[in-house]
Fold:
Amino acid sequence: MGFWVIVLVILMSAVLGFLFFLFLSFVLVPIFWGAPFLPTDKERIERALRLVNLKPGQKIADLGAGDGRILIACAKKGAKAYGFEINPFLVWKAKSNLKREKVQNLAICQQKSFWNQDFSSFDVVFVYGISHIMKKLEKKLQKELKHGSKVVSFVFSFPNWQPQIKENGIYVYNK
Structure:
């Protein structure tokens, strides 16, 4: 009986450790460095693409790319899509989705913080941030984006930047 108790304790410890790791990866860490993963539905993504008038050949960034659904939608419209995601599980999922949708020639997802990325070459930036990062991100994007670039924010708006379009929780900003 003692052997099985030890095995059970080890298994329970491993499961609890894994659950704690998932909590850190998907909830706690993203809250401080971005936002927790909340998938955006396809209709909302398609609406955002129409609002920014996405064109083939444009270079887009998805900040906190999650499972890659925005990257896929942009690549299917002919844009060159770059995703930045800090969660290694979501990067793996995004890469798998890009491959499944056969858009990996136009879309890439990197395990990288967008805070260290220069956005001066991007035409459109997508973000589903959280309120406490929006002020800092607003300053970064206003400083780095070229004239004519657009930013799409889902749900959370920038504190000082006035959106050109505001529709059902989609905010479109022009630089």
